[in-house]
Every structure is written in structure tokens, then in C-alpha cells.
Amino acid sequence: MASPRDILLVKxxxxxxxxxxxxxxxxxxxxxxxxxxxDPEVDPAAVRFVLVWQPQPGRLAxxxxxxxxxxxxxxxxxxxxxPQLPRHIPIVRMGSAETLQTMGEYVCxxxxxxxxxxxxxxxxxxxxxxxxxxxxxxxxQTRVGIMGLGNIGQTAARMLRGIGYPLAGWSRxxxxxxxxxxxxxxxxxxxxxxxxxxxxxxxxxxxxxRGLLNASRLALLPRGAGIVNAxxxxxIVLSDLIAALDSGHLSSAVLDVFEDEPLKPEVxxxxxxxxxxxxxxxxxxxxxxxxxxxxxxxxxxxxxxxLPNLFQPERxx
Length: 317
Ligand SMILES: NC(=O)c1ccc[n+]([C@@H]2O[C@H](COP(=O)([O-])OP(=O)(O)OC[C@H]3O[C@@H](n4cnc5c(N)ncnc54)[C@H](OP(=O)(O)O)[C@@H]3O)[C@@H](O)[C@H]2O)c1
Known about the structure:
alpha/beta, binds NADP nicotinamide-adenine-dinucleotide phosphate, 12 strands
């Protein structure tokens, strides 16, 4: 008798997305039985893998043979917030090649927007005002500092280098990266900030990354510096950022992530003349690209190899 196929239960994109998930997994991992999260015919004991976004609390505890949880997004708090989560089951964070590419594109767009003063041009347009200003510096004259040198930070660094920006980076553990000054640990953060003209936030949210860019640290940035944040909103104390922009110490900011999303209409950053807001759109990936990442993870699990992009609870990301 043929052994039953491993079940991958999917809760990502709604039930209508299941045929597409099935199609892509049929090519990548043909022995997988892909089922919708609420499929009444699924035997909970047969579920080996799940690919989820915001699973209902308590549900994952019911899958007694579950081997790996795949998060459909980069963050995992939508899974780990579940008080009944079986903590021994590994969680793989989304990290598709397309996410790296699109995040890198966004970072280039945002850094260029700050360096070329795009917000000033955008402010003139609704008034039909011809604002013929000259830029103040070129890319090689603009030092970019990346907070977070993980998969995305390193991809963004490669793309920024192609434009000509001098680069520095900051991470928890020291990195050795080509053509880049690498800072590490909280004790080197101030030195990193002091020599940065555009800060790029690409950090996960952990108790140690919350509020790192507060008034005193923003004051260490050189006058006219700018800020990009596409990691997690909690990195920046927004009221301190607004004060630093209003005082003229900072030039502009491009923000994609916020502590409270979606950002409420009454929040001041929407209307701030020196802030460009985007609605958590920096990174995106097709279902095909995300399925490729999951298929690589399932193959690694079956071979007994380390899982890619594994969430490590002790470090918080
Ligand atoms: N806006 C969007 O659309 C979007 C899309 C995808 C992802 N994201 C966000 O992007 C962020 C980065 O993703 P990733 O895949 O690059 O993550 P990753 O590979 O896990 O890298 C995280 C980086 O942050 C560093 N880090 C973590 N805690 C730190 C601390 N306390 N002090 C200094 N450095 C610290 C890590 O240092 P070590 O290298 O020393 O470990 C690592 O370099 C995540 O927060 C994710 O949620 C946003």
C-alpha cells in the first residue's frame, strides 16, 4: 500500500489562493498534499507542514505530527503570539529571493529619494510650482549606514554599492564584508551613527532593537542626514524623528513600517513635508517565489540538514 503523502496545510492569501499554491507545489514538491487550512477532510494527525499567516491561536497545537511551521511573511510574531504554540516545532521565516530583490530595490529608491531631495519636488507638484533646485551631494559623497546586515541588509548593500554609495553596516555580531566598514554591538552604535549621512533600518523587532533611534541618537547624526526604515517600525521613536526633522537637524525620511499598522489617518507623519510614507510595501514576493523557499525548507528537513532562515527564539529573530 502506498504511504500517505505529507500534508502541507496553507493559510496564506485565503482559500481562493489554494489552487495556485497547489500548482506551484506540484512542480516543486510533487509528493506534497497541499490543503486549505479549513479543509474539513484533513486528518489533523497527518499534517506535517504548515505555511501560515496569522493562524488562529490554539490551532497549531492540534497538529500532533507537525514538523515545521513556515511563516508566509518575514516576521513570526503572528505565530509566536499564540500562547498554546508548541514551542519545540521549528519556525522558518520567509526569505525568498524575490523578497531580497524587492527589498533591495526599495532601499535604493528610498536612499536616492533622500539624497536627491525627492520629497521637495513632490511637495511642489500639487501647487504646480516649478522648484528648480540643485542637489547638494552625489551618491559617492553620501555615506549610507545599514542597521541590520542579514539577508536583506547584505542584498541592499550590494545594490547600493552599484550606485556608488560608500557603505557602513551595523549588526549584533561583527561581519567582515567587502568594501564596507562593519560596526557591531550596542557599544559601537553611536560611532556608526556619527559617520552616517543616510541611515537604513533593516532590523527585526526585538526588545534590543526597540527605540534605538531616539532623540539622543538622532542628535549624533551629521546635520542634514536622512532616515530610511523598512525593517520594523519600533526601531524609531516617531515623535523624536519629527522633532529632529522640524528643527532642521535631519533632512528627510522615507518610512515603510510603523509600530501601529495600518497607520491611522490622524497620525502626523502622513502630512509631514519631509517624510515620505509607504504602506509596508517595501518587500513582496510571488506565490511561486515563496513556494520555492518553502520547498527548499521541506527538502532540507527531509535530508536532516539545517533549516534555512530559522527563527531562533533565544535571540528573538
Ligand atoms: N518592509 C517590508 O516589506 C519587509 C519585508 C521583509 C522583511 N522585512 C523586515 O526586514 C528585517 C530584516 O530581515 P532579514 O531577512 O534581513 O533578517 P535577518 O537575516 O535575520 O537579519 C537581521 C539582522 O539584524 C541584526 N540584528 C538583530 N538584532 C540586533 C541587535 N540587537 N543589534 C544589532 N543588530 C541586530 C542581525 O545581526 P546578526 O547578523 O549579528 O545576527 C542581522 O544582521 C526584518 O525585521 C523583517 O521583518 C520588512
